[in-house]
Amino acid sequence: MQRAAQASEAQARSVDAEGYHRSAVERSRKLGPAEQSDALLGLGAFLQRQLRFSESLAPLDESLEKAGVAVMPPS
């Protein structure tokens, strides 16, 4: 999904790209925290490139949270 998002973004198809990023986030929910973090980071970065800074905060914050869990699982 993320490759499709990047390809759409490169072709200036931002609506499609956002859809792919959001689909990648939803699909990653079935995977581990590292994959979730990557997908959320992709969405947050996309939103920032679209100058939608306030919308980018939630996925970026969640990405950092998931990355912390992936690195240091709860004891």
Task: Describe the overall structure.
By secondary structure, the chain is mainly alpha-helical. The chain contains four helices and no strands. The protein has helices at 2-10, 14-28, 33-49, 53-71. Helix 2 (14-28) packs antiparallel against helix 3 (33-49). The longest helix has 19 residues, at 53-71. It is globular. The chain starts with a helix and ends with a helix. 27% of the residues are buried. The model has no long low-confidence stretch (mean pLDDT 88).
Primary descriptors:
single chain; 75 residues; mainly alpha
State the share of residues found in helices, binned by percent.
over 70%
Q: Please tally the helical runs, counting DSSP H or I stretches of 4 or more residues.
A: 4
Mean pLDDT: 88
Globally, the shape reads globular
Our measurement of the CA-to-CA distance between the termini, rounded to an integer number of angstroms, reads 33 Å
Helix and strand composition category: mainly alpha
Give the low-pLDDT segments: none
Query: How many whole angstroms does the radius of gyration measure?
Result: 12 Å
List the helices and strands in order: HHHH
Strand elements, count: 0
Give a topology summary.
Elements: H1 2-10, H2 14-28, H3 33-49, H4 53-71
Quick structural summary:
This protein is mainly α and 75 residues long.
